[in-house]
Amino acid sequence: MNEKFFKTLLGVAILGLIIGTVGLINFLVYGKSTLALGSYIPWGLWVALYTFFLGLTAGAFLITILTYVFRIKIFSGIGPLSAFTVVVTIICEMLIITLDLGHPLRLYRIFITPGFKSMIFWMVVFTTGMLVIYILETYYLLREEIIEWSQDPGIKNRRIYQSLALGRTAYTEEDRRQDHRRVRLLSLISIPVGLFFYGSNGAVFAVLLNRPIWNSTLTPLLFIISALVSGGALIVLLTFMFKRDDTVIHLLAHTIRFLLVVMLILEFLHFFISYQWDVVYIVAALDLILYGHYWWNFWFVHLILGSLVPLYLMVRYHDNARVLAWACFLIVFTFIAFRLSFVIPDQAVYKLEGLDTSYFHERLRTTYVPNLTEWLVSLWVISLGLLAFLLGTRWLPVIQAGRGEEEHV
After folding, report:
1. Which residues neighbour 156 within 8 Å (Cβ) at sequence distance 6 or greater?
2. Which end of the chain lies in a sparser environment, N or C, as judged by fewer CB atoms within 10 Å?
């Protein structure tokens, strides 16, 4: 990555972190009373952002599986970068949903008093499992370079790498073979854990019978496909920024283009089938997405800017890596609009006739607009993730570890 561009991104991340801290302190001091949520809309911007981060993990997760389980050598150069991406995005995902729960310091209780019938319990279990797996996998992928850096007198902060090397001063061919076996084993374990990880997150929405837009047979499939689109777009963008491997970029962009078309078809079917039910509150929720106060979020941000424009760019300039990277940037940048359109509208419709005139309180309304605190905390989490990723690529051999991996995959 260009040094000037790196410093610009670093400055943006630090500035966002500083600004967002104001909202975070306000939330930690005064709690969920500072949010615009209510009894009828308990899930808002932070849940949408949680699903956004969840989607970003999918592309990197798939790359590691293709690289270290199926041994597809073309992706070996971005394997360590993908594993590190999974770690950062899962941490951001866990952080924002922990804040949304309202009592972050009580999270440990879910393990002390588990509810085995709760989808949220299993969501936490498999999310934690994925984080542990990918921290270990990232470490084993980087260990050779970490040991080398720990013995290089020209490396700054060499003591940090010496501690990460766990006392090792040399890295043998046998160590290399063992680490690759460990990475392959962890990748194999991550397949069932990952399937339950994505499945349990989708099931949290799909099992809610009183939310008919969520409670659909298409929801899990749409959830997975959209996650692969956004996550794959992120990997293309990172590959262009850090690796400039045009072959990988073209292959991934071709796959994303196909998945984007599939996602749009599934989204159309979701609307078409739901409208056919002709149930008042279902139609009202769908109308809210398409024609409500935030119609522009669906039509302009998600459909045009985040779907049709990238699709056009990927078809028209399919051999231009820079344009493909810009198309993927649009997908990633606007994908939060897709998640907001999924999370909010199904809650913003009264499911019981006359309920809107029975009780009057600001927390008993279905009009939801994220307030300043919600936006500032979201900015803080995003900035923290960006800062962690940038510093990780600079202070850890995430980029260097991908070189020369083809012979070992």
Report:
1. none
2. N
Distances (CA, A) of 143 to 28, 153, 162, 178: 37, 18, 11, 11
- What residues make up the domain containing 165? 44-210+378-409
> Is 31 a member of any domain?
no
Amino acid at 139: Y
Q: Which helix (H) or strand (E) holds 194?
A: helix 173-206
Domain assignment present for residue 129? The answer is yes
Q: What is the rounded average pLDDT for all residues in the chain?
A: 88
How is residue 270 written in tokens? 């979701």
Domain count, the chain: 1
Helices marked H in 104-152 — which ranges?
109-112, 119-150
pLDDT greater at residue 168 or residue 131: 131
Q: How confident is the model at residue 367 (pLDDT cuts 50, 70, 90)?
A: confident
Residues 6 or more apart whose CB falls under 8 angstroms from that of 344 comprise 41, 44, 48, 368
Res 53: pLDDT: 93
In this predicted structure, what is the pLDDT of residue 377? 96
Structure-model confidence comparison of residues 407 and 179, the more confident one: 179
Assigned domain for 217 exists: no
Classify residue 371: in a domain, yes or no.
no
